[in-house]
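hi! just following up on the protien thing from before. the input was this:
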Amino acid sequence: MSLWSRMLNVVRGDRLNREIDEELESHIQEAIEQGRDPAEVRRAFGSALRHREESRDVRLVAWLESLRADAVFAWRQVIKTKVTSIAAILSLALAIGACTSAFRLIDALLLRPLPVANPELLYDLSRQGIGPEGKPQTFDGWAYPDFQLMRAAVANQAELIAVSYAEPVDLTYKSDEEIEKAYLQYVSGRMFSTLGIWPALGRVFTENDDLKPGAHPYAVLSHDYWSHRFGQDPKVIGRTFRMGNELYEIAGVAEAPFSGTEPGTMVDIFVPTMMNPAVTRKDSTWHRTLALMKPGVVLQPIRQKLEATSRAFEEKRAKGFLGMSKETIDNYLNQTVLFEPAASGVSDLQSETRRPLAILGVLVALVLLVACANVANLMTAQASARAREMAVRVSIGGGRWRLVQLVLVQSAWLALLAAAVGGLFAWWSGPFVASMINPPDNPARLLLPADWRVLGFGLTLALGVTLLFGLVPALRASSRRGPAFEAALDARADRRTGGLLFSRAFRRGAFRHHVRTLIPSAHWLFHRSASRSRYRGKKSSAVGILGPDYRASSKRARS
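and the predicted 3d structure came back as:
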């Protein structure tokens, strides 16, 4: 029988029992049809229950069957102890929801890769050096003429992309009275093809849009902006809007879910870099430079080549600096080009919130630990109250691992229910916290999807919580020094000796009780006998101190 069939038999136990009973009955009927006596056949066949259990062990996965049985029993225990279960679930749900909400924010800003091709090969180029105030600084802004030289220098090893800082702009689609706000980003014409982003409608930019300044007044909309602004109207292609003195024509819509390269800002409109007024200026650093490395290329030689190219450009420009000291110019020229991984994008919001998000992660982790400690105490008390049940399981041969599994499965039920409630809390709190990161006039706009990453984190968290608050009570309940084993040993001692003489209850409880009763009684008898002996004179025997008094007391009792 295949493994899959054995696994299916675990969840269809009644059907499996019927099939086994029918098969066993068919064997008996076959022997009867051959002329044997029915009573003799059934007696020779033996116990039907034993044969059924042996057949079940062959036709299903034993450990999975025990896990299913424990899950059913644990669910009944959760329902039976409603107050304790609700208290544990709510306590854990608040902690799990806080952790999941924090993870959604951290993932959206710092961890989630951009929806582009080969994000692990994407880097942000920046420069590190001494600033005008004599302090070290790092800056990722570049002048477009410098970018053009660097792109040509490493054309065979990497593809450089210019992307401006995304900023809100005023534009109008009909008349000057209907001004709208939208986030706009200037991008290289090669960006879409280099990052593997294709049009959902119309076309995207190509390298032909990077040829001449001001000659390509076209725009590409993000899929999110197209959806909420135009309702995914396909007639949007060819429409125009005015931004400043320029009239732009909508050429296409980028495929979802790409909405720019800056986490925390969802770009609405992309326009070619050649439409930026500062595209020809050598003294204006208005865009970032992203580098998509070709597979197998080593970074260090490319970094050195780009650094040499940028230095040559800046040395030529520095010849026109007037009124600056030689030290200031040298500090300006002695800059190091850095490659920063940009798989999850690059934005100022990342650098501003990295430390606060790390502190937030530590705080919610502490909240989770406190909640797990509280629930562990509840589970320990509950396991102690079930000592008689555990003792019965030990007495009939239940092993320690089976007891641990039983308590852990109940803990898993609580953790899963808490994770479900916490997920609803995180679904509401994540966007709420994100809306409060920035001021109302410029709020952070984050993609917070409930995808497999969040689901995987939630399941992992539920498993970790199960172990955190369930493992200690499970080991306590199954320990050979725990109440279950002590009760089982007492029961076995009673069966062997027929009484409480050698039981642990006698040794620990009854023995102390009898000793506390015997000592005062002996003290009273000794004191009374000693007081009577004073009237018998010096010839009284020490051996008769108790004897005569006892006999006299007995005579009075008989009379």
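The chain is about 55% helix and 15% strand.
The longest helix spans residues 348-385.
cheers
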